[in-house]
Amino acid sequence: MPFGMKNDEQTDSSFYFDMNHRRLFSIAISCLLYFFSLSNTRAQSGNSLEPIIVGVEAGTNLTLWQHATPTYFSTVYPYPPGADTVQVPFQAGATPLFGFYAGLNGNFYLNSKWSVLAKFAYAEWRGQWNSTEPIDFDTNGVAGTIPVSSNLVFMLRTVALEGYLEYHFCGTKGFYVGAGVDVRAIASSHYDLDRSITGGPANLSFVDFSTGRGTGDRSYSIGGEQPVATAIADLKLLTGIPFWISDRWSIDPEVAFDLPLMSIWTDSKQSEYASTTYGHGPEPLPITGIISLEYRAQ
Predict the structure, then answer these.
(1) Which of 127, 78, 119, 84 lies closest to 102, judged by CA?
(2) How far apart are CA 118 and CA 26, in angstroms?
């Protein structure tokens, strides 16, 4: 017998925005274009252009998740291989995980206080769900529940073009804050799932959907993809302070916050979540710690 609810939905691989998504995405692109246009009109003082600072950066994301529990993930069921999916529930047990971050940046000063910052960045958003849920079973007319433990690690690999308007409290030498938007492509999604029957009669096992008979396996591991959107937009907040190690070079620690403007899930998956008692699928709230090595080009 299957442990978990069956999900017969055929995932639509084509991605489309509804009207609200189109509007938000258009606003994000318009803001980016505006930020970048400002860099072409940066102020001049005498015959000298305002500073341009470029850099390379690396760091890590700690991804918090809103609507993290209760929730469920639709996952591939291995008996028989590739034949069906099951909805694996998680009433609790969501854990933020760290992921890798790397990027390139260019900061174009408009004057001593204001600058336009552009970034091209790669980021991994990760989370883990681990819980034990009572699952219904019926064997030879005998019905009951049995505890099934599920551990799932979910990761999104993303690439983003980011634009910020920054305010500098002491010119190029001091503390700064910034706000902006990004347009982010979700390059891939992946989950790894481990499930095991942790109690009940020893002769109970996961069922083969094709035969309706037990497989003899009380645990299995499998991986797959989730139906996520092709691209999203986020509101960005940033703060940092440069430490100058020479006239040209600095090391800048930064902290950035992502506030989602759009869901990571496809429209069909959002509709599926909305039709259940869960209401929403898990949504990422990344906090990124960054170390940037920067060079003053002029």
Answers:
(1) 119
(2) 18
111-131, pLDDT tens digit by residue?
989 999 999 999 999 999 999
Which domains, ranges and CATH numbers included, belong to the chain?
5-296 (2.40.160.20)
Task: Give the mean pLDDT of 243-267.
Answer: 95
DSSP state of 51: P
Question: Are the CB atoms for 263 and 232 separated by under 8 Å?
Answer: yes
Give the lowest-confidence range in 34-43, 45-54, 239-248.
34-43
* Residue type at position 3: F
DSSP of 137-167: EEETTEEEEEEEEEEEEEEEEEEEEEEEEEE
- Which helix (H) or strand (E) is 30 found in, with range? helix 19-39
Contact 146, 197 (CB under 8 A): yes
What is the pLDDT at residue 34? 59
